[in-house]
Amino acid sequence: MSKHNFMLFTLFLLLGTAISDQIVSVVSTFRHGARAPMSQSSWDKGIWPQGYAELTPAGMRQQYLNGVEMAYRYISQSQTISPTYTAAEIYVRSTDTNRTIMSAQSQLFGIYPTGPQIATQALQQGAVPPFKVKNQQQYISALGTNALPNGFQPIPIHVVSANYDNMLVGYTTAACPRFAEILQQQQESEEYQRKVSIYSRGLQNQVYQVFKENVTYEMAGYMCDTLTADKFHGFPLPDGVTDDLYYEMYANQNYTNSYFYTPEGARLAGSQFFQAVINQFDGTINGTSSIKFGFYSAHDTTLIGFLIFLGVWDGNNPIYASSLIFELHNNAGNYAVHISYNGDIILLDGCTDPCPYETFKTMMEDKIVPNVTEACQLQGNGRMLRYNYNPYLDIDTLT
Ligand SMILES: *[C@@H]1O[C@H](CO)[C@@H](O)[C@H](O)[C@H]1NC(C)=O
Ligand SMILES: *[C@@H]1O[C@H](CO)[C@@H](O)[C@H](O)[C@H]1NC(C)=O
Ligand SMILES: *[C@@H]1O[C@H](CO)[C@@H](O)[C@H](O)[C@H]1NC(C)=O
Ligand SMILES: *[C@@H]1O[C@H](CO)[C@@H](O)[C@H](O)[C@H]1NC(C)=O
Ligand SMILES: *[C@@H]1O[C@H](CO)[C@@H](O)[C@H](O)[C@H]1NC(C)=O
């Protein structure tokens, strides 16, 4: 083949791929954007006008930009979803916290920046509530044809009360009591005992010097969460918090936020989510569902569990606004799943990228627990549980 022909051939291949390979369904799950620290600390120099644990304006911006990229990929480029909000195409679910609901809203605003118009002048005038609104006509005139100011598009965000949310916070002991036993078992392990012993001989003293608080191994990682919020928002850290100390505390958090994800723990926390991914993709393939975009707003601990379920976690606590995305590709009738995490390709052990759909589905189904409620019951016949408090399993301290 001449060089010229080869180039034409390559171009043809590229075009052929572009035309026949289509993204037909997407599931995105993400951590909320930047937020205030989870709770007050005497040493915290940050200013948090909305209070603790709330999404900050910077966090909103992160999610909005995530949404802009989603719109570029899945509206402009792949045309997987329609350019305007279409109720039948998208399902949005969030955990029941202010910051995750607001994160979903912010990201959706990036995807659908403009909402609907009211078609007729009669309806523009007639769409009023049963009582008289003060200065009603001014508001109506200002709206023009827009249903809402600035063409805002409201989008439903579904929420399940945290006690029952085994899909997105299935690692909490409130949603899944069995985690208390898993935690205890892990804390009794040699690895854990070794880490605590190293901590008490080193980091614990450093933390005490700087913060004037004696904190347990479990809480040292959690304290780092406040430092991370301060750093992100440009607030000064307490005197004596060196980069080294910060990263040591962060490394601690990597562990305390994840060690309860034994293979069983990852299955308990991930089964309902991965079942939802399979259901959505099955529904797209067999034509029984019109949902093409599944959207799940959650926490760092949620993403860690899903990544461990997939067998691909790199050990780093997910940063604000991290996204784990599953794309279902249809290449001339062959379906395959492409997975990415913060833009990096995720390669499943034993599969290719993209992973043929049937292989992906079998791999997921091998790990999915059919009845999570049942599997989450305590197994220890009322035996007294003794474990060190871990904030990540506590429904009141979802991160
Ligand atoms: C939402 O924010 C308010 C005000 O900070 C707080 O009282 C409330 O507990 C939050 N709700 C949830 C579910 O996080
Ligand atoms: C900190 O707590 C540990 C264990 O609870 C204890 O052994 C140690 O003496 C305490 N250190 C200080 C400085 O209070
Ligand atoms: C966890 O945190 C540290 C920050 O100190 C990071 O550099 C490290 O690579 C992370 N991952 C692991 C597996 O420790
Ligand atoms: C299509 O997929 C859905 C979701 O998995 C499943 O419930 C349904 O039985 C399938 N229908 C057909 C006709 O295969
Ligand atoms: C799952 O298990 C629970 C507890 O044993 C039971 O009440 C429920 O009916 C089961 N659900 C299904 C769908 O089998």
Automatic annotation (TrEMBL):
Q: What name is this protein filed under? A: Acid phosphatase
Query: So what family is this one in?
Result: Belongs to the histidine acid phosphatase family.
Range of residues in the leader sequence: 1-20
Reactions catalysed, semicolon-separated, are:
a phosphate monoester + H2O = an alcohol + phosphate
* Organism name: Blepharisma stoltei
What the entry lists under InterPro entries is as follows: His_Pase_clade-2, His_PPase_superfam, Histidine_acid_phosphatase
Q: Known PANTHER family for this protein?
A: ACID PHOSPHATASE-RELATED, PROSTATIC ACID PHOSPHATASE
Keyword set, alphabetical order: Disulfide bond, Glycoprotein, Hydrolase, Signal
